[in-house]
Amino acid sequence: MGGLRQGRRGLRVRTGTSHWKCLLCALLRPLDRPRVPLTADSSPLLSLLRKETKTLKMRVWIVFLLCLAGHAMAAPTEEEPIVEELVTEEPVVEETEVGVNPVQIEIGEFDEAIDATEEEEEEVTTENPCLNYNCKKGKVCEVDESNTPMCVCQDPSTCPTAEGEFEHVCGSDNKTFDTACHFFATKCSLEGTKKGHKLHLDYIGSCKYIEPCMDTELGEFPLRMRDWLKNVLVTLYERDEDNNLLNEKQKLRVKKIFENEKRLQAGAHSLDLLAHDFEKNYNMYIFPVHWQFGQLDQHPVDGYLTHTELSPLRAPLIPMEHCTTRFFEQCDADNDKYIGLEEWAACFGIKEQDVDNDLIV
């Protein structure tokens, strides 16, 4: 009945239509004989006919059963394509320890990711030319087309808004600025002009009327100023537990003043007492005067004080001491807009032989 083939699903029987036709022909072939007419003498023939009829019925049943079996086993004339089943491996789920969050990134990988990010940020940061490029007040750093840093005037509108009136400052043009940032940005925009050259930060706070300083008052100002500088240094020495306020050389010099039993304690003293103490304990005032000069001489450190460098000291004093402006103007003995150490010391009554650059430590 055709050929046998070993397939994917076992033994398969090829049962095409032509195979069944041949099978029927083979079963019915004994009937294809010449028809003989029936006669009286035909009883043996009749017996034979009856016998063959039974045989035929048997063959028909066999054919019928074979048809049923063939129909169940038959396949299309074209062979079924063999489809290979994809074998997927089941993911291996690791058991987590008790108390461990199953939704968790490997710590090592996470750290490496952080490190890589930090390295990238460091690379970007180091590539910024403005990172360590300092500009004076009123200017900000920008880079040109060749990635070279340069200082340009800051736009006053980019300055932070003042949080209160305590941030206001008064310019020498008697105009109030919201913050020091607004003042210096404005002054920078006026560079090269006569107005910009004359504009300075006068004092902290909104502009107000300052009484004129009389000659007698001007003579009293250095008495209070010297005593104030001495008391500031002693206070810093007392509070400097972490060595952040004074360096070691400064602390050694202030220690002598602090431990001196003759030192005049801070307080509201009369001008006569202040003048007497300066004459009696003159040596206690030499270092405080030098120290204050060194604190102000910062931009740049060149041994001279400009109007801008004086601002941190004079700006808070003017509202309280109306002779401040006139005092510092008088210190500039040669009117060159700079105050040298000798001029500074002379304003506070320090003798010329006691002026020493080595005391600025």
UniProtKB/TrEMBL annotation:
Disulfide bonds: 130-141, 135-151, 153-188, 159-181, 170-207, 213-323, 331-347
InterPro entries, sorted: EF-hand-dom_pair, EF_Hand_1_Ca_BS, Fol_N, Follistatin/Osteonectin_EGF, Kazal_dom, Kazal_dom_sf, Osteonectin_CS, SPARC/Testican_Ca-bd-dom
Pfam families (UniProt xref): FOLN, Kazal_2, SPARC_Ca_bdg
Family: Belongs to the SPARC family.
SMART domains: FOLN, KAZAL
Keyword Translocase in annotation: no
Name of the protein in question: SPARC
GO terms for cellular component: basement membrane; extracellular space
